[in-house]
């Protein structure tokens, strides 16, 4: 999507990891390579993307304003396509060829709740950008053409975007696929000039995002979400 004139003048990029779980929209890099939402809406930190430092460590929060007065760079791609091609994998950036039944299976394998097929179809059709990984050769870890990783983002294309449904098949976790998905999806959104990019994560994987250039709660800003309240169980009747 071409950048608008307004987008070219935006100078900050925010990626937030907030303490909330939207209804029916978990996001995750399962295990060490995953983020799986818990039912709780509390105690999850919000992080902001400030650009990756050269040593791979997160930028100092106190120096955010001083170090990034201009446009914030997209995250570096630490492992290129050739690396993953040698593993028998390829990244795909279009919906064509993505079977929703395979996507549903991947979500279930990483512990996501089962999605209504019709709603999932609409969700994917209304996605701003998606990226997925498929196997290009048969191996002990995957069948030829198998879906092994996925991530997507919804957006208005100008002001804000949200990353959802980051998932890596269990057999491929701890191989760098989760990081590769986030780097490529974030780079796409940053290069489109979108200044505010949010996602939701478990506290246990915040450190991974900090290494990718995220900082916690810039200027004390917190993320919130509207969610239906669970009904309280009726008290047991006395006999």
SSE blueprint and pairings:
Blueprint (H helix, E strand, L loop, with lengths): L4 H4 L5 E5 L28 E3 L14 H4 L13 H5 L3 E4 L7 H10 L7 H9 L3 E7 L11 E9 L4 E9 L8 H15 L4 E5 L5 H6 L2 E3 L23
Parallel strand pairs: 1-7, 6-7
Antiparallel strand pairs: 2-8, 3-4, 4-5, 5-6
Describe this structure as you would to a colleague:
- This protein is α/β, with parallel strands linked by helices and 239 residues long.
- It is built from seven helices and eight strands; from the N terminus they run αββααβααβββαβαβ.
- The protein has a six-stranded mixed sheet.
- A hairpin with a 4-residue loop joins β5 and β6.
- The chain is globular.
- The N terminus is likely disordered.
Keywords:
239 residues; alpha/beta; 7 helices; 22% helix
Summed up:
The protein has 239 residues and is an alpha/beta fold. Helix content is 22%, strand content 19%.
Q: Would you tell me the structural class of the helices and strands? A: alpha/beta
Query: Beta-strand percentage?
Result: 15-25%
In N-to-C order, the SSE pattern is HEEHHEHHEEEHEHE
Spans of 5+ residues with little confidence (pLDDT < 50)? 1-28, 30-42, 54-70
State the major sheet: 6 strands, mixed
Tertiary shape: globular
Percent helix range: 10-25%
- By DSSP, the count of extended strands is 8
Number of helices: 7
Overall pLDDT: 76
What Rg, in angstroms, do the CA atoms define?
Answer: 19 Å
| Span between termini | 66 Å
- How do the strands line up in the largest sheet? 1-7-6-5-4-3
């Amino acid at each position: 999507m071409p950048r608008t004139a307004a987008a070219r003048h935006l100078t900050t990029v925010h990626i937030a990891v907030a303490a909330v779980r939207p209804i029916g929209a978990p996001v995750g890099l399962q295990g060490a390579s995953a983020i799986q939402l818990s039912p709780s809406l509390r105690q999850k930190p919000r992080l902001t993307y400030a650009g990756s430092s050269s040593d791979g460590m997160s930028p100092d929060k106190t120096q955010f304003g001083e170090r990034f007065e201009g446009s914030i760079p997209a995250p570096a791609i630490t492992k290129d396509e050739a690396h993953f091609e040698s593993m028998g994998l390829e990244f795909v950036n279009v919906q064509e060829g993505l079977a929703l039944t395979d996507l549903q299976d991947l979500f279930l394998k990483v512990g996501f709740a089962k999605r209504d097929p019709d709603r999932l179809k609409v969700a994917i059709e209304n996605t701003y950008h998606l990226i997925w990984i498929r196997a290009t050769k048969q191996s002990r870890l995957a069948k030829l053409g198998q879906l092994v990783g996925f991530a997507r983002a919804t957006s208005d294309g100008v002001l804000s975007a949200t990353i959802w449904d980051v998932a890596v098949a269990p057999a491929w976790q701890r191989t760098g696929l989760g990081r590769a998905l986030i780097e490529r999806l974030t780079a796409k959104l940053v290069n489109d000039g979108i200044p505010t990019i949010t996602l939701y994560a478990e506290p246990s994987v915040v450190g991974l995002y900090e290494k990718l250039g995220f900082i916690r709660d810039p200027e004390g800003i917190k993320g919130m979400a509207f969610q239906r309240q669970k009904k309280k169980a009726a008290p047991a009747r006395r006999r």
